[in-house]
Amino acid sequence: MDSVALEPSLYTVKAIFILDNDGNRLLSKYYDAELYPSMKEQKNFEKNVFNKTQKADNEIAFLEGLTIVYKSSIDLFFYVVGSAQENELMLMAVLNCLFESLSQILRKNVERRCVLDNLDGVFLVVDEIIDGGVILESDPQQVVEKVNYKADDNPLSEQSVAQHITEKLALTTNVLQSAKEQIKWSILK
């Protein structure tokens, strides 16, 4: 019998989303374009996940061949979705990092209104933790520092947004340059 080898992949998170206590989407990012390509499919999936988890006391669910870790806080539900083969502890580390980072940024007031009022900062936090499905950071302190979001300052200055974009562009440029070099050397061999 042939053993089926899974192709290695850096994409460890399929999706991340935050729903309110009625199951309505506040934020969502899907990193696997094939998983739920349309908005309608995404919202149906989110509704199914919400219906399964809203009254459960667990922190993990399995639905439609996916591993889902989740946490609720006041009037919000936080979800991190991975493949069925994904390590639940790694997904939970992402979820805890997201929640703790937001808790610091929102001064421990992690509720619907505060999330909506600071949605730009929430998106930056998500982008610092996950980029294209790849987990970049799981330490909330590092995330808050990178986002440059101080609890005593005004939320998110234009300079910190520009700095974040500049850092992302520099990272992308470095990755593209490295890939270009690798392709060049593989052709020359």
UniProtKB/TrEMBL annotation:
<dbReference type="GO" id="GO:0006890">
    <property type="term" value="P:retrograde vesicle-mediated transport, Golgi to endoplasmic reticulum"/>
</dbReference>
<keyword id="KW-0963">Cytoplasm</keyword>
<keyword id="KW-0333">Golgi apparatus</keyword>
<comment type="similarity">
    <text>Belongs to the adaptor complexes small subunit family.</text>
</comment>
<dbReference type="GO" id="GO:0006886">
    <property type="term" value="P:intracellular protein transport"/>
</dbReference>
<dbReference type="Pfam" id="PF01217">
    <property type="entry name" value="Clat_adaptor_s"/>
</dbReference>
<comment type="function">
    <text>The coatomer is a cytosolic protein complex that binds to dilysine motifs and reversibly associates with Golgi non-clathrin-coated vesicles, which further mediate biosynthetic protein transport from the ER, via the Golgi up to the trans Golgi network. Coatomer complex is required for budding from Golgi membranes, and is essential for the retrograde Golgi-to-ER transport of dilysine-tagged proteins. The zeta subunit may be involved in regulating the coat assembly and, hence, the rate of biosynthetic protein transport due to its association-dissociation properties with the coatomer complex.</text>
</comment>
<keyword id="KW-0472">Membrane</keyword>
<comment type="subunit">
    <text>Oligomeric complex that consists of at least the alpha, beta, beta', gamma, delta, epsilon and zeta subunits.</text>
</comment>
<dbReference type="GO" id="GO:0006891">
    <property type="term" value="P:intra-Golgi vesicle-mediated transport"/>
</dbReference>
<keyword id="KW-0813">Transport</keyword>
<dbReference type="GO" id="GO:0000139">
    <property type="term" value="C:Golgi membrane"/>
</dbReference>
<dbReference type="InterPro" id="IPR039652">
    <property type="entry name" value="Coatomer_zeta"/>
</dbReference>
<protein>
    <recommendedName>
        <fullName>Coatomer subunit zeta</fullName>
    </recommendedName>
</protein>
<dbReference type="InterPro" id="IPR011012">
    <property type="entry name" value="Longin-like_dom_sf"/>
</dbReference>
<keyword id="KW-0653">Protein transport</keyword>
<dbReference type="GO" id="GO:0030126">
    <property type="term" value="C:COPI vesicle coat"/>
</dbReference>
<dbReference type="InterPro" id="IPR022775">
    <property type="entry name" value="AP_mu_sigma_su"/>
</dbReference>
<feature type="domain" description="AP complex mu/sigma subunit">
    <location>
        <begin position="12"/>
        <end position="150"/>
    </location>
</feature>
<keyword id="KW-0931">ER-Golgi transport</keyword>
<keyword id="KW-0968">Cytoplasmic vesicle</keyword>
